[in-house]
Amino acid sequence: MKQIMQKEIRHSNEPMPLAPGEKLMTPEQKFFFDLRGWVLLPSVLSESEIEEMKTEVYAGARHCYEGTLQNLLDHPALVGILNEILADERFIFDDCYGFRCENSITTVRKPGWSTHSDRGTAVPHVVRPPQQANAMRYQVAGGKIFAGLTRVIWELEEVKAGQGGTTFLSGSHKAHFNYGGPDPNRPNISESPWEENIKGMMEDYSCPPGSLLIFTESVIHATNNWTNPDNPRCAVFNCYNSIWAQWFRLNLSHEIIEKMPPKRQSLFRGTWAIGGGPGGNRQYSLDNATK
Ligand SMILES: O=C(O)CCC(=O)C(=O)O
Ligand SMILES: [Fe+2]
User: 253: Cβ–Cβ under 8 A, 6 or more apart, which residues?
Assistant: First the structure.
């Protein structure tokens, strides 16, 4: 029994397994992510990566599970941050990630694109209101962040502030009071008497192509009209979660996952921790897939 436990849970005195290029989240990134609920890493991808990935999205790629886009799933610039905000370090191993990927979509928004075609997320919203305990909620305890459902956006074209990037009500992932609407459990600010004031306080960002934006889905955020006349928005939206929690149904075929490198496959393993035999839940297989 002792032997099994040793394999299932990494000792905290063992060094964090980091692959080449992976870095720990910096104290500055941690400070601002905790304060605002989102963090931007500008210019993460190389020119050639950006060109290849943009070509794939413009050619019709609907998600980033295949092609060069697949490298975004566990990009070295992302892994250290997700380790910090989504993983228990005792469950991070050399052969599997300590977090899961549960959704990926791409978007192309041409100049003039309007939220009329995507009204749902144009209303400032969250996964679940953060004022009550729930498994998707942003938490900090014992000096440790757990960001709940986390969204990662790769901007493959330039984004200019005020011209259509995602907007955030910074700090709202830690709000204690609801948004003033009739239903405190509603996950958006619709019918709030303060709707315009809330929208007026929302922030966005400018960034070059190849930038990485990470936010907790507990921070109020919204989709905006793309008014930038110079280029479309071309972005990949991926969602991550704890290895023990799930929001999205994955609907990703085994044929796609089995072609990935084994460690990347572990992003799609089943959502459970203990009881599957020695070693715990580390390997993806047809029988151990996120449903
Ligand atoms: O379209 C956007 O800019 C934001 C989308 C959104 O609401 C999300 O990723 O959760
Ligand atoms: Fe959203």
Answer: none
Residue 271 CB–ligand 1 contact under 6 Å: no
163 pLDDT exceeds 90? yes
Please check whether residue 41 lies inside any domain of the structure: yes
Protein residue closest via CA to atom 1 of ligand 1: 223
Residue 173 has pLDDT above 80, yes or no: yes
Q: Ligand 1, closest atom to CA 107?
A: 1
Indicate whether 275 belongs to any domain. no
Cα-to-centroid distance, 99 and ligand 2 (Å): 20
278 lies in some domain: no
63 found inside a domain:
yes
15-26 confidence digits (pLDDT tens): 778 888 899 999
Q: What is the DSSP string of 209-265?
A: TTEEEEEETTS-EE------SSS-EEEEEEEEEETT---S-----HHHHTTS-HHHH
Q: Is 121's C-beta closer than 6 angstroms to any atom of ligand 1?
A: yes
DSSP state letter for 24: P
Which residue(s) pair with 113 in the sheet? none
Q: What is the pLDDT of residues 88-122, one digit of tens each?
A: 999 999 999 999 999 999 999 999 999 987 678 99
Residue 214 — φ and ψ, nearest 5°?
-125, 130
